Amino acid sequence: MSAKSKKPQDHEVQYLGAYTPKNVANLKKQAKSGGIREYFVGASRGPRPTEPSRKGNGILFGYIERAKKGWGRQFFCISANGILVATPLPLDPKQHTDGKGFFPSFLISDKSAKNMLDDLMKINPENESELGQIDRALEELMRSRT
What is the pTM of this model? Predict the structure, then answer.
């Protein structure tokens, strides 16, 4: 993110598969070895490659999903710019995705990105240093546009 840009950033939210022990372990292993390149959807399916749209020019968030008890799906943020967090953040569309539904890859505003980073840091103090660097860069960018 360049602090000189006056244009609002488009932050990307990318699907990273199912919230299962197998997939989370796979994501952790990849994050430690240079980047997330594939994910698992279900136990019986093989890995799928990640496919960010690359339309975003800001932060790249990753999310995972699991079935809700009863009916529906729950969505959780698990990464920001390749930093995998220990405790995935339950996503609230009003706060974290500009009210958008969930797709393989979609864009969000600075405000939603800031909310997501703040909430990730609250529940993942062990990642505060890394996430804080991303957060400070976003805050600087947002201030430069006011």
Answer: 0.87
